[in-house]
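To the wet lab folks,

You asked to see what we're planning to order before we commit. Fair enough. Below is the target structure as tokens, and below that is the sequence we designed to fit it. If anything looks off to you, flag it before the synthesis order goes out.
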């Protein structure tokens, strides 16, 4: 199963949360987003979520919560766009006289 879409999703999920060298670690692991103990193994994860429906990927219901059996759903791109943190606004500095 290591070459399947769902396996790659599981591996990416763990990397974002656990690997401080991952490019998206700041948005996940550094914020305290973690993977539930039940999902630490691929088998535990797969037994819970199964294969993704066409056009869907895993989405956390509570965007600040962990990847966990009680905090996920299959979502399309439209749903995922509307379930994300708002970007921080950069304040413009006023020029000093």
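Sequence we intend to order:
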């Amino acid at each position: 199963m290591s070459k399947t879409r769902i396996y790659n999703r599981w591996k990416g999920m763990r990397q974002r949360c656990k690997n401080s060298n991952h490019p998206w670690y700041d948005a996940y692991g550094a914020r305290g987003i973690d993977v539930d103990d039940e999902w630490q193994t691929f088998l535990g994860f797969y037994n819970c979520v199964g294969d993704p429906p066409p056009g869907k990927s895993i989405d956390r219901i509570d965007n600040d919560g962990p990847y966990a059996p009680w905090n996920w759903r299959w979502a399309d791109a439209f749903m995922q766009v509307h379930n994300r943190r708002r970007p921080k606004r950069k304040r413009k500095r006023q020029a000093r006289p």
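Structural context that might help your review: The mean pLDDT is 87. Residues 5-81 form one domain.

Thanks,
Computational group
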